[in-house]
Amino acid sequence: MDIIKVLIADDQTLMRDGLKTILELEEGMEVVGVAENGIQAYELAEKLNPDVVLMDIRMPIMDGVDSTRIIKNNNPSIVVIMLTTFDDDEYIIQALQYGASGYLLKDIQGNKLIQAIRESMAGNLLMPSNIAVKLATRLSKISEKESINIKSNNLALSYREQEIATLMIKGYTNKQIASELCISEGTAKNYISMIYSKIGINDRTKAVIFLRECL
After folding, report:
1. Is residue 117 a contact partner of residue 4, using CB atoms and an 8 Å limit?
2. Structure pTM?
3. Which CATH class is domain 159-214?
4. CATH architecture for the domain at 4-139
5. Which SUPFAM superfamilies does this UniProt record tie to the protein (predicted)?
6. Where are the domains of the chain?
């Protein structure tokens, strides 16, 4: 039986250590690396080429949704499972759109986590029933105009980037954006830089004008 190589990405040390302990006790699984944020996650995924990434959704510097997008773009064969305490509809939809293989809550039992990893390797979509119901309801309400992805001139912003773009349009400073979204000012700047890169504009005023047309 082939060994399943797993990369763990979570900003909480206790959670990382707990997951690592559970997986290393399971025959046929190996934890090849751990990451504390989304940037470390995609860098380690590129370096270590794991079979599965257990990805926390909300992490500093870069969240798990954007990290998933990069990982799946660079290596579509890697299975990414979103693991979080939040059953946030928007994040679920975004992660699935980027190629995540499912979404599990962090209070899942160890044996069920092991089973979920094996099922994901078999190509099955992982979704707790209560989240599946919410997702179905949310998707049924999305019209073309309300789509999660903002698309204009091949532009596609992540959910977090959309939040920040909306605040930029409202005239928020980087510090105010960070306070509103409970992230560091440095993280806010990183996301704004990614927005600039996607729209091809480095001037904030011009960027706001452009984004206002998209939102």
Report:
1. yes
2. 0.65
3. mainly alpha
4. 3-Layer(aba) Sandwich (3.40)
5. C-terminal effector domain of the bipartite response regulators, CheY-like
6. 4-139, 159-214
